[in-house]
Amino acid sequence: MNIEWVLITSFILLILGLSLIIFGQSKKIHVLKVENQKLRPKENNDELIALVREKLKTLGVVKTVKYLREHRGMSMIDAKQLVDTFKN
What we know:
Blueprint: H1 2-39, H2 45-58, H3 61-72, H4 76-86
């Protein structure tokens, strides 16, 4: 009975510790995203839209997303949402 309580307590402490680590990492990620937005040069939306439309015609959806990620520094989600907006 005593060993069971030790195991349960250890498991709870492990989960609590991992939760704190995850929370800390998500906070750091948020701070880095905000800093990245500040450092990234502002781009004219019309130019970006024209670029996306051109790349969609020549490269297709997947390679356009890849291009935006590699050459424009966009996240996967942002690039995919932008491409989905103009793919029709």
